[in-house]
Amino acid sequence: MQKKTKKFFKDNLDLAGALDGSRAYKGPNIVQIDLTDKCNLNCVGCWCHSDFLGESKLIECKELPYKLVKKLIEDLHKIGVKEIMLSGSGEPFMYPKIMEVITSIKQKGIKLNIVTNFTLVNKKIIEKLVELKVDNITASIWAGDAKTYVKTHPNQNEKTFERIRENLKFLHSLKKEKNLPHVKIYNVISKFNYGKIENMINFALDTLVDYIEFQVIDAVQGKTEFLMLSESKKLNLFKQFRLLLKRDNCYAYDVDSFLINKKFLDGKLNKEIKEFPGRFIKIPLKFILKVSEGDKDGKKCIMRVLTCPLNKTTWPPKEDNPKIREDKNLYIFRFNPPHCKLCESFDTCPVNDKGEIGIKYLSILGFGSFYRRISNESLREAYDSNIIDSIPCYVGWIYARILTNGDVIPCCKAHLFPLGNLYKNSFKSIWFSEKYNEFRKKAKNTKKSDPYFKRIECYKGCDNLGMNLEFHKRIKELHLLQKDID
After folding, report:
1. CATH architecture of the domain formed by 34-229
2. Residue 138 and residue 248: Cα distance in Å, rounded?
3. Dihedral sign of CA atoms 340, 345, 347, 350 in order
4. Taken in order 323, 324, 328, 329, is the CA torsion positive or negative?
5. Per-residue pLDDT for 129 more than 60?
């Protein structure tokens, strides 16, 4: 029992630190590194490079020296950092030694997430990313068709969009065996693209990515507010998502979500982490999927029957059909193998010799957060402040961000609240400093209306809210486990 307790403690040092409340026992779980401020695009809603910013547009672009970055990766590895995110105000692939940085991170066995506009990525780079087993790529696209892409990226043309499409497909073709990296398309929604949600879903299905995420534009006051959504445009968005649920290829993944049309995101469940009630699948040509409500062992279930071009059908739900491979975003349907092997079309059919066919599905991530942010403005603001103060802020144990000027900040939007600088001290000494400990104690125990948090402006929108909710869930589970032991 003592050995198990020691192992549990060692595996959950982040929880131990948060429960202590006064210090950290290990490094953060996630560190975001802004390698460069340089970007080759001018996304309309960007806080740094949009042409609509006028004189506020970022001109002096900084960059972290490679020598400093290499030492930083060493330091992060030593203090137990689990994941590094390459993101920020610039495009990571504008950084001169980006491939060396990626290689260094993966050689240390650290999980890596790259947030990129995917325009500078070519086939040679893609091959290397797959070879290095990069874990996650977030492709920021903001469109599902070439015309909308140009509208949201004024310095690009339609060929750029089609090149992105081609490269995403190439990436999928290479990663079949290792299934890495997982790929997510990220779309910021403004008045320029709000009516194109279905196109974005179709593009994601066509390129065979794993996930898609939507976020409403975060406007710069006095500069890009005209891009914000009016109430009528928000209502139009709600309508589009309701219609998506009625698509033949929208696959409800449990009975509750299958019946969700009766109460679309209704009730008092935590809207921030609620999933979209369906996944989208790309059904093979000439195959037909029929979905209906059924009964299994006296309980409601979803009847799913896949029919092949020669009118053969898959086994019924009582045979656990289809199986779900969450690690590969696949539904695996099973036909009767002997029948398949005798079929005249077997050699050209996508069904394997076991009678199985894998159909990839697309999930919408972060839907609860998106749904909340397009809701009534006054209700949204009240909800933001209520949910932010309803649970402790644990960000001081789980996350840190490093800006291009070397500043170490405790959360995504704390640009004006640095707790140290890498040109003066190592990350380790900053992370375990008394100044950081003061932030941890304040963040965990103090309402964000306190003057201490004025420079962060937590109530204007917390970009770390999702990870904070997940960490809070772990804390609650630990308390329940403790009660069971007692």
Report:
1. Alpha-Beta Barrel (3.20)
2. 27
3. negative
4. positive
5. yes
Strands 330-334 and 323-325: antiparallel
Q: Which tokens belong to 147? A: 């015309």
Q: What's the chain's average pLDDT? A: 88
**Cα–Cα distance measured from residue 441 to residue 394, given in angstroms and rounded to the nearest whole number:** 9
Q: With 50 as the cut, is the pLDDT of residue 263 above it?
A: no
Residue 478: both structure tokens together: 């630990």
Can you give the chain as a three-state secondary structure string? Answer: CHHHHHHHHHHCHHHHHHHHCCCCCCCCCEEEECCECCCCCCCCCCCCCCHHHHHHCCCCCCECCHHHHHHHHHHHHHCCCCEEEECCCCCHHHCCCHHHHHHHHHHCCCEEEEEECCCCCCHHHHHHHHHCCCCEEEEECCCCCHHHHHHHCCCCCHHHHHHHHHHHHHHHHHCCCCCCCEEEEEEEECCCCHHHHHHHHHHHHHCCCCEEEEEECCCCCCCCHHHCCCHHHHHHHHHHHHHHCCCCCEECCCHHHHCHHHHCCCCCCCCCCCCCCCEEECCCCCCEEEEEEEEECCEEEEEEEEECCCCCECCCHHHCCCEEEHHHCEEEEECCHHHHHHCCCHHHCCCCCCCEEEEEEEEEECHHHHHHHCCCHHHHHHHHHHHHHHCCCCHHHHEEEECCCCEEECCCCCCCCCCEECCCCCHHHHHCCHHHHHHHHHHHHCCCCCHHHCCCCHHHCCCCHHHHHHHHHHHHHHHHHHHHHC
Tokens of 473: 């869930």
List the domain boundaries for the chain. 2-25+383-485, 34-229, 283-360
pLDDT attached to residue 453: 95
| pLDDT of 403 | 98
Partnered with residue 138 across adjacent β-strands are: 115, 184
Q: State residue 446 phi and psi, 5-degree precision.
A: -115, 140
CA triple 239-245-249, angle to 5 deg = 135
Residue recorded with tokens 């003057």: 451
Half-sphere exposure of 259 (CA within 13 A, CB side): 7
Q: Which residue has the tokens 């929604």?
A: 189
Q: Report the amino acid identity of residue 199.
A: N
Residue indicated by tokens 């970022």: 58
**Selection from 329, 269, 250, 229 nearest residue 469 by Cα:** 269
Pairing of strands 30-33, 83-86: parallel
Q: pLDDT by residue (tens digit) across 455-468?
A: 998 988 788 988 99
Amino acid at 392: P
